[in-house]
Predict the structure.
Amino acid sequence: MERQGFVVRLVRDLVIFTAVVVAQPVLALARRLSRRRGR
Amino acid sequence: MIAAALAAGLILVAAFAWWRFFYFHRNPVRHSPPGDEPVAAADGRIVYLETVAFPAAANPYHRRIGSTFALDGRWSVIATYLGIFDVHVVRAPVAGQVQIHRIAPLSANVSMGRSFIYAGLRRPLPAGRRGYLDKNEFLGIDIRGDGRVLLVLMADWWIDQITPFVADGDRVERGQAIGKILMGSQVDVWVREGWIAPVLTVGAGVRAGETLLGTRAGTPQEPSSSA
């Protein structure tokens, strides 16, 4: 795969990093709800 | 209010810079358990376990791997999804001689975003959600030692590089670092069905070079060398 420019990669990685950080507590909550429903 | 937003933004950017330039590139020392049972190749979570039969395999990914490695018979696949906070150094599950296969993408790499969600939920990734298997770029590593173990290192749509640390014909030790994926991806370990008794389940967290994939239950697979 052809490498993109440094700034493009940096911005892209920042967007992905932010999305993952935001998603972590949402997924943790979903897991907890799923476990509770399974009881 | 503005000051709080600015502070939050600064903290986010600082955390990002720390992750992007330091944390992501870490390569911690790993201590493989004694014995010769295969260890995990990558850090992350198991997203699926499956068995593939050749030459009947109808799935395009399986056919691609089958033709690359000239496979026949039944094989077990253990798929590990690497999140962005996992170590991305890939390690040899067993000792042996390596052969590298660059597997070109069939189209532009597509996202593994669904793998992230299913791994986060500790649920198996449904076959219908694995479209990237039919398209993306892979690096295949064939390790022939006491048995034959195949690794498929996969690129997500935003992956820059899959870099092997070894070359064709090199001898690797169990747990040795053999490559790195930049950044976020999946590693499949293929072993002949019955060679090991799997001990992992979908959703389990694994550490490269340390977590046992299974116990040696079966007979040796194939000759120790392709030569």
Remarks:
- Chain A has one helix and no strands.
- Chain A has a mean pLDDT of 86.
- Chain A touches chain B at residues 1, 3-4, 9-10, 12-14, 16-18, 20-21, 23-24, 27, 30-31, 34 (CB under 8 Å).
